[in-house]
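Help needed: design a sequence for this.
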């Protein structure tokens, strides 16, 4: 099973279209969206080709393969226009490891949920792969609005491999889980 993880699109139709390209190039089985899909949020500038309606259209075209967690900028109306469900967190076992996917404003490196091996989140717009207290903490970064000199990025999870890549597909960091 191959997963494409994307976070913090914040209404950018330009980067939503990039997801289409990445999906074609990477050929994942599922897309996991970590939230903050449409609204740019009062702390952020407008994103490139800001067009929440167009982003919704693009994401809805992937509804059959999307798993989605709810971000702190995702409102009731955002859920209403989406043809997929928003969850607080998604728990999956991949290669025997317990993964927890979440937006990151509640659970993150400073508040790691119990009984997991890998925590994957976004929210901070900074991509990284780190370890804390025996838990692998991965931030997929933001595809549209990276901060602190990080790149526009996404994450690939393929069996025991974690690959953090920039939007052009170049590897930023990677980790192979010991299984
Ligand atoms: Mn957020």
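Sure. Designed sequence:
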């Amino acid at each position: 099973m191959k997963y494409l993880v994307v976070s913090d699109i914040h209404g950018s139709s330009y980067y939503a279209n990039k997801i289409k390209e990445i999906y074609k190039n990477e050929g994942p089985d599922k897309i996991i969206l970590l939230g903050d899909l449409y609204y740019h949020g009062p702390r952020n500038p407008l994103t490139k080709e800001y067009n929440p309606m167009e982003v919704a259209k693009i994401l809805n075209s992937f509804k059959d393969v999307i798993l989605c967690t709810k971000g702190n900028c995702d409102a009731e109306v955002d859920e209403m226009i989406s043809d997929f469900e928003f969850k607080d967190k998604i728990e999956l076992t991949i290669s025997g490891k317990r993964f927890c996917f979440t937006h990151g404003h509640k659970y993150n490196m400073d508040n790691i949920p119990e009984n997991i091996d890998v925590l994957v989140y976004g929210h901070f717009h900074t991509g990284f792969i780190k370890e804390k207290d025996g838990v692998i903490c991965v931030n997929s970064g933001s595809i549209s609005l990276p901060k602190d000199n990080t790149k526009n990025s996404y994450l690939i999870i393929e069996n025991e491999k974690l690959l953090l890549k920039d939007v052009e597909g170049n590897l930023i960091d990677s980790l192979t889980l010991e299984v």
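The radius of gyration is 15 Å.
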